[in-house]
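ok here's the first one, seq then struct tokens
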Amino acid sequence: MAATARWRTARSAVLPIAAGLLVGLVLLALATLVIRAAESPDALVSAAVDPDVWYAIGTTFAAAGLAVAFLVLFGTPLAYLMARTRSRVLPLVEALIDLPLVLPHTIAGLLVYLVFMRNGPLGAPFGVVGLSFEDAFPGIVAAMLFVGIPYYVDAARDGFAKVPVELEEVARTLGAGPGAAFARVALPLAARECLSGAVTAWGRAVGEFAAVIMIAYYPLVISTLIYTRFTQYGLAGTVAVALVLLAVCGSVLIVLRRGAARLWRPDAPV
């Protein structure tokens, strides 16, 4: 009993400290950025009204949103099939889906470039109809889509895996076809994981840099703008811009996370 009590006491003391280390690291980084930005209030004001900054934010959010829309459209049926299929090729498919997680992002960008460049296997036919990816908005979307695949598909697959197959079978015995059983039973029950995966994939897309610049340095997205400002003006010309971008991106991410939580826990406090 004494040993158990000591363990409980140690656990109650150690776990909060261990859990707070990572949170503290993030807070320290944010506080350092705020302090450095506060040293030049004029630069902070200039960054807040800089049209280039807001153009980069708009471009980034639009491209990331479109990339997530494609992920939901094509990734949801893929995730459902992965959750319901028992096949020898499933491990291979899972490895392919997770490949962007382990690839250096420069290699991910190289793969996207090879596929979507003007004479690439997809870039060439799209070019025939006037759609270009090199140094163009569609290239940004393609890069964000590629790096976001595992974040959405893995989350959605886990959601579908938690839905008992028997529920769909009952729906089918009541006259629902495979599509109706999926839309009315499986998808609503897995929607929470799908939504969480979509938010995570959006955040990952917003922060992407290496894969984007490999195919589309322009138009500038948030990460490319920061890199450009750093190379041109150094740390002094970057801190204020970084704080503005961080405030906007962080606020949007908080709203998305809280919105997702409220959607599934309507009794949660505001």
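and now the second one, same deal
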Amino acid sequence: MTSLKMGIIGVGGIAQGRHLPAFKQLENVEVTAVQDVNRTRAEEAAEKFDVPHVFDDYKDLFEKVDAVTICTPNKFHAEISIAALDAGVHVLCEKPMAMTVEECEAMMEAGERNNRVLSIAYHFRHTAEGRLAKQAMQEVGDPLVTRVQAMRRRKVPGWGVFTNKELQGGGSLIDFGCHLLDLALWLLDGPKPVEVIGKTYDRLSKTPGQVNDWGEFDHETFNVDDHVTSYIMFEDGSSMQFECSWAANIKEDHTTLTVSGVDGGLSVYPFEVYQAKYGALFDQTAKVDGGEDEGLVQAKNFVDSCLGQGELVVKPEEALKVSRLIAAIYESSETGTSVRL
């Protein structure tokens, strides 16, 4: 196989804003089909991106494709991924991997038994800063403390189903924080977590009279987390301080990921390396111009992996680790105790 026939399941914002434009740029990909529960939206997307086939049932799409990209609410990730893999179709699934650890494991088993590629769209790994940081981790030596913040000021998504717990499984953590959690674990080479303590909040978004930059939502029906804090301890003795929010009362949005190690320290945003050598303190910076769009880099990597021409960057077993930590943070908040893993 020298080219890949791609289908898109769910043609909402992330499909039309990232995946469809990326795959349409690749010469070795033909986007042949789309499916959405909203037939009108599917037909509009097909016309906009020149896709020949539109389906009402995602299972009917499989015969027209070699691979699918799944952009549905989280509740349906596992069901559709497993059906696709069992039909002999490769899968790129939007993050998070699934609603539960058990669903993630079932997806992995389906990929293995059918010998098909399964990847999760944790695109922060494909950013210029993320790729540079991965190479620079050798300057850090053994990691000691990692600090992660994925913070937004009053930006609860007021569209789609982001605030629907039944369909999404959670809020700011499972939607936004998961990206930085995945990136941090990747930079650290996936250390084994042994204990997690976490706390979730929703009080701000349940308060009447909201000022929200990203549209309106119903504070009375809001039932997901809008702010999460946690502390994660790893088997190698290192630790991570993790925080994310959709709606914090802070001065401005900011994304922070730093690693302090034995030989040096690293910041991803902005990219900097800190060391002590030659009897002095050294700060190193790099000009990161962005390069290729991360959505395009992600699409290329997935396609190359499906065609046997490259190694997958986001492996399913790594995405499973992220989901385990997400589940542990939620469990810790619900029980009021730390969770041993």
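notes on #2: The CA atoms of residues 75 and 166 lie 7 Å apart. The chain has two domains: 4-121, 130-292+323-340.
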